Amino acid sequence: MGGKPKLWPASIGGRVDQIGIVVRDAEKAMLRYTQALGVRCWYRAESSGEMRVVSRGKELVLDIDIHLGYIGRVQLEIIESRAGSGGIYAEHLEARGEGLHHVGFFVSNLDKKLRALRAIGIEPAQSGEIRSRGGAVTRYAYYETGGQGNIIAEFIETKILGIPVGMSRFMMNIGTLTGDARRVRL
Known about the structure:
By secondary structure, this protein is of the alpha+beta class.
């Protein structure tokens, strides 16, 4: 009877806020998910070009494009990973092709989550920081759950002026005013 493995404490997760999908062509994917799932509005994340990424212990410069839409309160993230970009998005495309990449959890204190996972011996597969044009700072960390059916969990923290703001549809609309995001018309 051994009990549950002590891998992910209950306090680590929460409700799923985001579903991440890796693709080769974001525009085609957005059209597909608009038709299939009824996503009505898409936003393109507008980075200032400041993106720090560490993947499997190595610093990288990724060539990606991120688009966000909503199904109810759940954010659908389309990540277009361009050829030669590297990182876990490129790994996914090479090993599995386009499709579901991760489930994401919006957090207000990423450092606390990172410490809790490190305390039980779990390190991120990839982590990074993205600074947007309007001043928002998004930090994230991806963790592999391991084993058969491995799925990646992402913890995401977005702050403006040091205040956690999350990534709701409302905040994306504010982001269109500050330069953090741009609405995409299909």
